[in-house]
Amino acid sequence: GPGEVRVNSSAWIKHVQEQHGLPLLHVDLERSRVLLGLNGIREELTRPLPEPAVLSQALGHVEEYVNTVDHGQSPDAALAKSAMLEALLYVMSAPFAGEYMKRRRRAYGAVDTRGPRFLFIHGQSQNGKSTFLRFALRLLTGTHFLPLPGREFTRSKLLHATALGTSFPVVFDDVLALHSSQGLEETLKSYWEVWWRADHAQPQVIISSNVRTLREWAKSRVKRVDFDVHFPPDERNKERLARIFEVENPLFGWFATSYLALLHREPHVSDDELHVGRQALRALYETAGRAVPAFFPHDPLERTYDPARQDWHELFRWGKARRRNEKGR
Predict the structure, then answer these.
(1) For the chain, what is the largest distance between any 2 Cα atoms, rounded to a whole number of angstroms?
(2) Torsion on CA atoms 23, 153, 147, 163, rounded to nearest 10
(3) How confident is the model over 161-185, as pLDDT tens digits?
(4) pLDDT of 2 over the 60 cut
(5) What is the DSSP string of 77-142?
(6) Which of 236, 268, 317 lies closest to 68 in space, CA to CA?
(7) Which of 140, 151, 235, 270 is surrounded by the most beta carbons within 10 Å?
(8) How far apart are CA 329 and CA 316, in angstroms?
(9) What pLDDT sits at residue 310?
(10) Can you tell me whether residue 237 is helix, strand or coil?
(11) How far is residue 151 from each of residues 123, 132, 144, 148, measured CA to CA in Å?
(12) What 3-state DSSP class applies to 27?
């Protein structure tokens, strides 16, 4: 069909991966399936939901990873866990960004041409951003798959990625040149608003960075999620993470099945890009008969928590700012 990626050629899959560092991923709405072309192999990721106990085990594995926050230092561990799960929900929902864009255009096209916001994971060094991206991509692909280095976050890289017809997110780790990159502002403004075509799959963009401030134009185009936790180098922490990373977790295939079923039932489009993703994950918890964890982000994180306020808290915490009362103000 139009915009379909035929990933039946092993050589083509390998070529795209070697040249662009991306797998080929295709969301087939008609047949309610998600296909992945990776390491020369094409496979269907969507699968029927398993026994509740098996599903519960997969969800428990994700919770175990999120709970590693307890072994770090954080002013608000519950918030740090919610941020991590929100970001994970975003990564798992990213393959469906094109469908979200289609519905958004149909609903608001005449007044608002913006697409789904890009994910911007912010945090200082040793706060688990890189580890998180590796964990999320392992969940998505079923194998150890690395994000792209931050230095490759350029206009030409994004243009090439859009030409491939893949719905696999383009993930950049540790982007430093958020402000200085030539033409990046125009690129990110154009990415969904100008470049997107309804008949062609386009990957969503995810970046991690320790750059604190964003320009005004970027604030409305990115979904900023703060990882406010510090993991000191510790052998036990490394061993714990290594054990978590060894586990093969097929959760994304079940999440995709749940997501597609909801897409067919729900024509509504929400300003929350993760609206369907939240429902899909909650439905899996229900099927598994497992209690939803206290840190589950039922609403967009930015509605319950203000990153700018967090920046001020951090300035006070590190002694970079002082409060002064003047005439009752």
Answers:
(1) 73
(2) -10
(3) 999 999 999 999 998 866 555 567 7
(4) no
(5) HHHHHHHHHHHHHHHHHGGGHHHHHHHHHHHHTTT----PPEEEEE--TTSSHHHHHHHHHHHHHS
(6) 236
(7) 140
(8) 17
(9) 62
(10) helix
(11) 18, 19, 21, 8
(12) strand
Q: Record the tokens describing residue 49, joined without a space.
A: 């939901």
- Output the DSSP codes for 160-227: HHHHTT--S-EEEES---TTTSTTHHHHHHHHHHTS--TTS----EEEEE------HHHHTTEEEEE-
| Cross-sheet strand order for the sheet of 170-173 | 148-149, 170-173, 205-209, 118-122, 222-226
Token pair, residue 189, equals: 């403004």
Q: Are 164 and 264 in contact (CB under 8 A)?
A: no
The whole-angstrom separation of Cα 151 and Cα 176 is 7
Sign of the alpha-carbon torsion through 217, 220, 222, 228: positive
Name the β-bridge partners of 10: none
Tokens (6 digits) for 307: 């990153």
